[in-house]
Amino acid sequence: MGRAFTEEEKIKIKTILLDKGRALFARKGLKNTSVEELTRVSGISLGSFYAFYDSKEELFFDILEAEEKKISETIEKQLFSFEMTRENFKKILLKIIDLITGNPLLVMLMNVKAYQGLISKISEDKYQRHLNQEYLFTEKVISRFLENKGMRNVRPDILSSLLHALFLLQLHKDEIGNKVFPDMFELLIDALSDTLVTNGSKNLNEKKD
After folding, report:
1. CA atoms of 189 and 28, how far apart (whole Å)
2. In the chain, what are the domain boundaries?
3. Is 43 left (phi over 0), alpha (psi -120 to 50) or beta?
4. Least crowded by CB within 10 Å, which of 47, 53, 78, 105?
């Protein structure tokens, strides 16, 4: 039986695992990263690793939650610092999507098999807490949009589904065509912004003859 860690040691080891683990997972992915590699780059023993986590998936999940927390804080600052106009709504949508699709760890989980493989190794209680946090944050974002007088009266579940669909589109860049995707996606965001928001000039101004 290994020795007990002091609170200071626990904080230090866990911080190292989160930091080194994030870099390794981002570079190699969850599937191709082993516990042995994690312990080697972290400078700890296997026994020390298992004193904190039952699996690499649990470590990945903690890193994922830390990443989502940083993104959520950034999004919240954006949400409460702009006037609701069509142009600004477009900007915040693109910002949210860039934050998520620009994070290699979150992009991994856009793959259904990868996501299912991860949650199969996480306790039900931990997973449910995570889902509740995601739900509360999404509800806050949707409420922030809909409470603004510049937004059309749209059902919250429909607006939430629209945002989710925008993220899913990112998974099909290759099928749609990488050359055309950026322009197509911006056109879609323009159309959504013009439809959902009533304030400000339209992003898709009709050309005058």
Report:
1. 32
2. 1-53, 55-196
3. left
4. 47
Q: What is the pTM of this model?
A: 0.81
Q: Topology of domain 1-53, per CATH?
A: Arc Repressor Mutant, subunit A (1.10.10)
Span 143-164, pLDDT tens digits: 888 888 888 888 888 888 888 8
**Rounded-to-integer distance, Cα 2 and Cα 48, Å:** 8
8 Å CB contact between 151 and 83 = no
Specify the fold of 55-196.
Answer: Tetracycline Repressor; domain 2 (1.10.357)
End-to-end alpha carbon distance in the chain: 82
pLDDT digits (tens, 9 = 90+) for 14-33: 999 999 999 999 999 999 99
Are 20 and 41 in contact by the 8 Å Cβ rule? The answer is yes
